Amino acid sequence: MQRIPAVTTRTAPQASTAALTAMSRRTGRTMAIHATMASSPAVINAYTGLVGALGEHGTLDAATRETIALTVAGANDCDYCEAAHTAAGRRAGLSEEQMVAARTGQRLDDPRLGTIADLAREATTSAGHVQDATWEAALAAGWTEEQLTETFTHVMANVFTNYFNHYAGTEIDLPAAPAA
Fold it and tell me: Checking CA distances to 64, which of 24, 84, 108, 110 falls within 20 to 30 Å?
């Protein structure tokens, strides 16, 4: 059940309209998650600030970002984000098998992506704690300390949306992710 009403650029609080418009342009349409976040200027602007910082300063490629997003969505059982990031994962070149593996905690066929998925899953399910062995495996796979630091922000951006969708009861307005 949708608890927080979705708004439009005409019905949103004035302080939400610029962020809602920007997200609609970025995604090519107004997604239910953004329309629901826009009910509160604090929420939509916090989210767009985080996404904007990652877009402006981030170094991770699309396949890596979507692997992290799918891993976090799977760990948090967020149907909305699994659906959204499955579509984005396809555009980023991930295979169906890779996306299902990321969502379900299985080993990815790409060892480098597998280590970043392991790190993201561990951070998600352990309140940010990551074992030294997981960190060292990611470094050994070729990830830099800067990229692993950035990974934390991708994890948190995805936890933000996962929890928001659970909290708000966001209506899923895109095709569901394939069953895992």
Answer: 24
Q: Is 2 contained in some domain?
A: no
Return the DSSP state at 172.
Answer: P
User: pLDDT digit string (tens) for 23-52?
Assistant: 999 999 999 999 999 999 999 999 999 999
Residue given tokens 């402006």 in the structure block: 56
Residues 106-149 pLDDT 10s: 999 999 999 999 999 999 999 999 999 999 999 999 999 999 99
Task: State the SS3 of 49-72.
Answer: HHHHHHHHHCCCCHHHHHHHHHHH
Q: Which of 61, 114, 120, 71 shows the shortest CA–CA distance to 91?
A: 61
Residue 28 phi/psi, 5° resolution?
A: 85, 0
Read off the amino acid at residue 135.
W
